[in-house]
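Reading is simple: each integer encodes one residue's backbone shape. The lines below illustrate:
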Amino acid sequence: MITQKTNPKITGLIKSLKENSYQKEAPIWKDVSRRLERSTRRQAEVNISQLNRFTSADELVLVPGKILGSGRLDHKIKVAALSFSSLAKDKIETAGGECLTIIQLMESNPKGSGVRIIE
């Protein structure tokens, strides 16, 4: 049985990621769109502690899923994700970082250079 995403925001995001991938010749956006097409059970859920462990200061990170607030962050990073828990958003901003949507990241960095995907 093949299922499709029913949330119009996510389907619109996937469509715009694919279009941007072809127009700007940036394969990272096609990769992210494929990760977002997965079933909800297989979608990424990343804790703040994982971001702290696997990133360095001033890094640009993309999470094709949700960021959860467990753990602590001791350096500033820019994070783009499908969604953030309120605690995670507070912790990222308290550390001096920035929270972005995937669309905002795609518009500010059309080629996707310097972006690290974490799942």
In short: The chain has one domain: 8-117. The chain has five helices and five strands.
